[in-house]
Specification:
Chain lengths: 388, 94
């Protein structure tokens, strides 16, 4: 077997231009496909990590097809539903900052007491957590950097009614950058003032259910009590990311069709037959004592070496592109276009099984396609093959 | 020496798999911080936006964009888990 492998490598070296062309084509295709898969799976995994604390049901009020403020009285009406553990009206929204030409997300925290403190966790990079009623804010580190703010500075956010400036008391750490890069966390009263919400209004209503299996029943009851409301279940939220990233990945794959076709053409070139030089080489091998089995092993090893090296290079390039370099060029197409872009590097979601799957899907067909023409040439009499 | 050529792929898969495992383990240490922040945010959506419309929280937004990002550009972000209907629907007479 070792001598057959040596002979196969020598044979590849003699036709190195063709082998390199095949290998580079295969490698680039693997790089592109694997990079899109790595990035898509990584984003889905990040989105799943953020869903740990999601409410089971979110209720929005729609007017003219657009979400609008809900009344606190609506929340009261939902508290009596069986199996509902907690109903939380939430105050949050977007504020456009002309200085950034982008939106920030303003989130009101209702009485900091009932929530776990951010102090002492990796959630905060600098400073401390909010103190209620002090007109303070905690902001994403990229947002603070973009506005030139440091802890202790004050900022007046644009608002429909005069609102007090908020003092930056802390910035979010890189561990939560992907979720909070553009967030301004402040007291609920301050958020109401900035967002122009009345005291009896909230942005939406979050409902925690005692038994998550009953979320659908609760959603149905909410619709009965609030006709025309938009009810979003936790399971639907998870589906959004599957759809959004799946569709974006699909669009990129569609743009890659020419590259994929090139791979098919290369593979067909391998499958359609051997060159006259290769046929003569096989005939000589048989004439000097190689069996059909030896010939097939040699040709299979040739393909295996090319496909293995190309796939290894493709996987390595894709991984380095996405996780070591931050996916330049690809990130904008697949991730988004935020002005306040999270700088955190992505975490790989890919495991051994997926890597082996990509490798098998590439190497298997490539090697398989090389066997048939080699077998056709190997079963010929050496003299017939040399005469052509 | 030649066997190394065949071993390249398993070696690369092993290196990438181990690197990914180590990075996932390191990221798992951030779970308490993520949970602490996520409980205060309106959704667990990532801080990434769309083009023509604001899609900071795609799971919460209205289903369907007000206008395209560009001429004949498909909407890459189906908000609220809803896909836009085919445009032929609008040209059909009742």
């Amino acid at each position: 077997m070792r001598s057959l492998l040596s002979f196969a490598v020598g044979s590849l070296w003699r036709r190195r231009s063709r082998a390199i062309a095949l290998g580079v084509g295969l490698s680039l295709t693997v790089t592109l496909v694997a990079a899109v898969l790595f990035l898509t799976e990584s984003l889905r995994a990040e989105a799943e990590r953020g869903q740990v604390a999601l409410p089971d049901v979110v209720v929005q009020r729609l007017v003219a097809g657009r979400p609008t403020a809900v009344k606190l009285a609506d929340a009261k009406a939902l508290e009596g539903i069986d199996s509902v553990a907690r109903v939380r009206p939430r105050v949050w929204g977007y504020v456009f900052l002309p200085a950034l030409q982008g939106n920030v997300t303003v989130v009101g925290v209702p009485g900091v007491a009932g929530l776990p403190s951010l102090d002492g966790t990796a959630a905060l990079e600098k400073g401390r957590d909010l103190h209620a009623g002090k007109h303070e804010m905690v902001a994403g580190a990229p947002l603070a950097r973009a506005l030139g703010l440091v802890v202790g500075d004050s900022l007046g956010l644009p608002s429909p009614k005069p609102s007090p400036p908020l003092t930056l008391v802390g910035t979010f750490g890189s561990a939560v950058d992907l979720y909070a890069a553009d967030v301004v966390l402040c007291d609920e009263g301050d958020a109401r003032a900035v967002l122009g919400l009345q005291l009896d209004e909230a942005t939406d209503i979050a409902i925690d259910v005692k038994n998550p299996q009953e979320a659908r029943v609760v959603a149905g009851t909410v619709l009965d009590r609030m006709p025309g409301a938009r009810v979003v279940e936790k399971s639907v939220l998870a589906r959004v990311y599957t759809l959004a990233y799946g569709r974006r990945a699909g669009l990129i794959f569609a743009a890659c069709i020419p590259a994929l076709i090139a791979l098919v053409v290369l593979a067909l070139d391998r499958a359609s037959g051997l060159s006259p030089v290769e046929k003569r080489e096989i005939a000589i091998l048989k004439a000097v004592g190689f069996s059909i089995r030896d010939v097939l092993w040699t040709k299979m090893l040739e393909s295996l070496v090319v496909a293995s090296l190309a796939t290894a290079a493709g996987l390595l390039l894709a991984y380095a592109w996405v996780f070591w370099m931050g996916a330049p060029g690809l990130r904008g197409a697949l991730v988004g276009w935020s002005v306040l872009y999270p700088q955190t590097s992505l975490t790989p979601s890919v495991d051994f099984a997926e890597l082996l799957g990509i490798a098998a899907a590439t190497v298997g067909p490539f090697v398989g396609l090389s066997i048939v023409p080699a077998w056709r040439a190997a079963i010929l009499e050496p003299m017939d093959a040399m005469r052509g | 020496m030649h066997k190394l050529l065949l071993a390249a792929l398993p070696i690369v898969i092993a290196i990438l798999g181990i690197d990914a495992h180590v990075r996932r383990a390191r990221r798992a240490e951030d779970r308490p911080a993520i949970a602490a922040v996520a409980t205060r945010l309106p959704s667990g959506d990532l801080a990434l936006s769309g083009g023509a419309r604001w899609l900071r929280t795609p799971s919460m937004e209205e289903p369907g964009a007000a206008f395209d990002d560009g001429i004949a550009v498909p909407d890459p972000d189906p908000a609220g888990a809803a896909m836009a209907p085919p445009t032929s629907v609008w040209s059909e007479k009742p």
